[in-house]
Design goal:
Helix content: 25-40%
Number of strands: 13
Number of helices: 16
Strand order of the largest sheet: 7-8-9-10-12-11
Oligomer: single chain
Shape: globular
Structural class: alpha/beta
Order of helices and strands: HEHEHHEHEEHEHHHHHHHHHEEEHEEEE
Length: 424
């Protein structure tokens, strides 16, 4: 049995479970929910097992009679169990009674949201800090304080290493595999989306090739705010018999239910001076390895800049887009640990953009740019300086995430941090 690698979400669970009766860990298949939850459970009901599903359906009261923490794994296979847990918590709100894990939001929604009884926690693929490739020396938590502490640290990870992390996946069961086996597993993961996952949510896919083409076009739109119409056009280029818009909306909605789309919304502060900001989300799949595999991009292809399988790239550099996706995955994980939120900023005419705006619990922000290079020049900090002029003390810190070796703070106060050195 492989050794469990502690996840950042474990810290959140450590804080929640001693005080809450029921916690649901939710996220895409393969992110490690079951392994994380099983370590905390005394009794496990795996509802992807038909016999155990029938056992709970025949005797729902079993969950009340268990001693210790009861884990209900893949609860969406029997949505009625959600209401059973909620009612059980109403009867006995003692902390630590239930853990649920879910890989989808069921179409057959529970009778009750569970608000006030079941707290939902998102789990994603492994961030760079969780993969053990380098010990982080810069924490997002410290950046959010606004103290502008000295920044230091040295990373051995260079550009080829980041490319390997992009294609290598943050799925803990896929990541350790040899390259060919990893590609096969990612291919199988993508194929199962159309063959099984859509059907389990009550949506048959009449044209699986069209769904895959849409997913591939979405992957090509990584780190952009391309419209869904543009994604559809790219997916069906040259076809006269295009799917109806309602069909592609279903694709988007079901993929969201499966936790496979992980967009970053546009930033909209309260200040009316920012009326020019666009609010279109940036597109990301839950793991950049899925995007790379859909686009058939190998490490050599990414490093050479030759991407023959990409019919449409909405950016200027597919590797740059996927590096931003890798950082986006990390930011999602780190902001959740800090009870913060992540958005992006773009003015409507596109003259000013900031890749990530992290808003902390106190309302102050950290502005983050990504750069696919080891060094930072004046042009790379133009938008960060503009934002500082606009928001003043609201800006707790400003950071450029690079593929370089060293972390430091520039004379203008902007932090330069290699991606591998950033942590929660």
């Amino acid at each position: 049995m492989s050794v469990y690698r502690r996840r950042i979400v474990d810290t959140e669970l450590d804080e929640l479970l001693p005080s809450l009766a029921a916690v649901a860990i939710e996220g895409a298949k393969g992110v490690g929910k079951t392994a994380t939850a099983q370590r905390r459970a005394d009794i496990v009901y795996a509802l992807d097992n038909e016999q155990q599903r029938e056992l709970l359906a025949a005797d729902p009261g079993r969950i009340d009679r268990g001693q210790g923490t009861v884990l209900i794994d893949e609860w969406q296979r029997s949505p009625a169990v959600w209401d059973e847990v909620r009612r059980s918590v109403d009867r006995d709100p003692q902390a630590g009674r239930f853990l649920l894990t879910g890989s989808a939001i069921p179409t057959e929604t529970p009778m009750h949201s569970g608000a006030g009884r079941i707290v939902q926690v998102r789990m994603r693929p492994m961030s760079l800090a969780e993969r053990g490739i380098c010990e982080p020396t810069v924490s997002l938590r410290a950046l959010l304080t606004g103290r502008r502490d000295p920044i230091e640290g040295e990373s051995a990870v260079e550009l080829p290493g980041y490319v390997e992390e992009i294609v290598g996946s943050g799925f803990p069961g896929i990541r350790p595999l040899p390259a060919r086996a990893r590609r096969a597993q990612l291919d199988g993961y993508i194929a199962r989306i159309a063959e099984r996952d859509f059907a389990e949510l009550g949506h048959s896919v009449r044209r699986p090739a069209t769904l895959r083409a849409w997913l591939t076009a979405y992957a090509a739109a990584t780190a952009t705010s391309a419209s869904y119409n543009a994604i559809l056009d790219a997916a069906t280029s040259g076809e006269t018999d295009k799917p109806a818009k309602a069909t592609t909306i279903t694709y988007r909605d079901v993929l969201s239910q499966l936790w496979l789309l992980d967009p970053i919304p546009g930033w909209l502060p309260v200040d009316n001076a920012f009326a020019r900001l666009a609010q279109t989300p940036k597109h990301f799949l839950v793991d950049p390895a899925l995007s790379a595999r859909l686009l058939d991009l190998t490490p050599d292809a990414l490093l050479s800049g030759i991407t023959p399988g990409v019919r449409v790239s909405y950016g200027t550099n597919m590797l740059g887009q996927l590096f931003e996706a890798l950082v986006a995955l990390c930011m999602h994980v780190y902001v959740q640990d800090n009870e913060a939120r992540v958005q992006h900023m773009r003015t409507r005419n596109g003259d000013h953009e900031v890749d990530f705006i992290v808003t902390g619990p106190g309302g102050r922000i950290v502005a983050v740019e990504t750069k696919l290079a080891a060094t930072v020049d004046e042009q790379d900090v133009t938008h960060l300086r503009w934002l500082k002029e606009k928001v003043g003390d609201l800006l707790a810190d400003a950071v450029v995430i690079t593929t370089g070796r060293y972390a430091y703070r520039r004379p203008d106060g902007i932090a330069v941090v290699p991606a591998a050195l950033l942590g929660p």
